[in-house]
Amino acid sequence: MSHHLSRAARVLASAAVITINLLTLPAAAHAQGTGVTRTDLQRHDLSAPGREAVQVRVDLAPGVAFGRHTHPGEEIIYVLAGAIEYDVDGKPPVTLKAGDVLFIPAGTVHAAKNVGSDTASELATYIVAKDKPLLTLAK
């Protein structure tokens, strides 16, 4: 009987370790819908009170769009791969490729679409208010 108890204890301990590892992974990937993956890379408080910097890798499958949304602060984009069309309110749409950058002012409604034939990726750096959601879908 003690053999079964120790085996059960080992299984429970393994499950606890796996659960803790999943909860504490620094780069957790979040699917935002079919074909969109957001991977949190880092988040740090800034010297400006109530503000934080957040870096996220966003991957878009071919033909996939991320709908109109805003952020509670600035977004600084660096395209890592592929071709992404950005539609920023008040400006004509622009298609950016690997190595291109884009600055989106706080609260500006914008959208992105992968217009290439391969997965497109960007590094998004946000300088945002800590007490607000990082992303809000536009109505």
UniProtKB/TrEMBL annotation:
Residues 57-122 form the Cupin type-2 domain. Keywords: Signal. This is Cupin. CDD domains: cupin_BLL4011-like. The lineage of its organism: Bacteria, Pseudomonadati, Pseudomonadota, Alphaproteobacteria, Hyphomicrobiales. It holds the Pfam family Cupin_2. InterPro entries: Cupin_2 (IPR013096), RmlC-like_jellyroll (IPR014710), RmlC_Cupin_sf (IPR011051). Residues 1-31 form the signal peptide.
